[in-house]
Amino acid sequence: MRSVFSIAVAGLSLTSSLVSAAPVAKRDGFPGGAVFPLADGFPTPNTDQLNTIQKQAFGTLPNGPPPATISTDGLTNLKLIALNEVFEVAFFTELVYNLTNKLPGYDLDYAHDFVTDTLKAVIAQEELHALNANGALAHFNAAPIQPCKYNFPVSKFQDAISLAATFTDVVLGTLQDVNQIFAKNGDDGLVRGVSSVIGQEGEQEGFYHVLQNKRPNTLPFLTTSVRDFAFTAIQSFTIPGSCPNINTIPLKTFQPLNILSTPTATTGQLKFSFQASKAGTTDYANKLSLVYINQQNLPVVEKLQDVVVSGDVVTFDALFPYDQFEMNGLTIAAVVNGAGPFANADAVAQAAVFGPGLIEI
């Protein structure tokens, strides 16, 4: 007898997916743009509502006290975590709405109830992640991060799950950076809790991979990221001007880097574009480079080739050296000033002008 899970896998097969920082037009689905506050009271649930959220999440908020002090950089970590978790709550709330109402593209047949129930648990778990981060901010007398209005460029379940897998990969990479920053600044009391979230997000990512008929275990060492890339990526899904206090997060926002071709598991040329007037130079091929961040390896620097300028758009090709570096899973692309080499992802972010381009193999 086939399980409901195997039926779900059989019906969902996707090729490699790709997300760029360029905004995409709003698709139909969740009514209106402002989904907050939710029916369960999030982001400010009362005691009874919190109890309901915890039951739906199959666990509770940590009940131990936060550390007595925190660094300035540690506060920035908490703000970014809260921004991301609220964004994820919005995404999965919209997805579950579409599934519950079986909108076109969201009827999964026999697997429907299993997948919908699992994603309802994801919503509640992400709500607790957000409440935990915002609660820590309040403990340290910092304003909680408030929800934005969002624009998710998907119109069917397969695309939604592909997107979820991509931004979860970015989260898994960025929380590495968060933990390292906590450790550097003496905020070690926060590392254990964030590490528990890394594991939980990894469980989610495995589920999203299986729903796409992919291996759940993608890489031996997951791709790292930095806070600025995640901060920029989240904003590509927010409606401009709709985030009440995103300005309190002192992180860098890069200009969009558009990926114009679909990467595959082979070495070859990829096509990209960016806005000429934002480059800070007109000598694009000599002053700028494309950098790939993949796994825990040193960043890979490639030259901009076949550069074409049309109006305010610069289009170029760059080698994607898949075979040399086994560039599976998430690869983060950025256009940077200079030719490198770059010691790590932090150095790439410091030199970056356009990005992140998010590639999934």
The assigned structural class equals alpha+beta
Which oligomerization state do the chains in this entry correspond to? single chain
Strand order of the largest sheet: 1-9-8-4-5
The percent range for strand residues is 5-15%
Count of β-strands: 9
Alpha-carbon distance between the two ends: 32 Å
Q: Which outline best applies?
A: globular
Annotated CATH homologous superfamily of the largest domain: Ferritin, core subunit, four-helix bundle
Order of helices and strands: HEHHHHHHEEHEEEEHEHE
Quickly give the CATH architecture of the largest domain.
Up-down Bundle
Number of domains: 2
Low-confidence stretches: 1-29
The radius of gyration computed from the alpha-carbon positions, rounded to a whole number of angstroms, is 20 Å
What's the CATH class label of the largest domain?
Answer: Mainly Alpha
Q: What is the helical fraction, as a range of percent? A: 40-55%
Main sheet record:
5 strands, antiparallel
CATH fold topology of the largest domain: Ferritin
Give the integer mean of the pLDDT values: 91
Keywords: Signal
Signal peptide: 1-21
Protein name: Late sexual development protein
Characterize the structure shown.
The protein is of the alpha+beta class and 361 residues long. It folds into 2 domains: 4-248, Ferritin, core subunit, four-helix bundle (Ferritin, Up-down Bundle), CATH 1.20.1260; 258-360, Sandwich (Immunoglobulin-like), CATH 2.60.40. The chain has helices at 4-11, 47-57, 72-100, 112-139, 157-184, 191-211, 227-235, 284-287, 322-325, 345-351; strands spanning 18-19, 258-259, 268-275, 288-294, 300-303, 305-310, 313-320, 330-337, 352-360. It has a 5-stranded antiparallel beta sheet. The protein has a 4-stranded antiparallel beta sheet with strand order 2-3-7-6, with no helix packed on it. Strand 4 (288-294) and strand 5 form a beta hairpin. Helix 3 packs antiparallel against helix 4 (112-139), helix 3 (72-100) runs antiparallel to helix 5 and helix 5 packs antiparallel against helix 6 (191-211). The longest helix has 29 residues, at 72-100. It is globular and about 60 Å long. Residues 1-29 have low confidence and may be disordered.
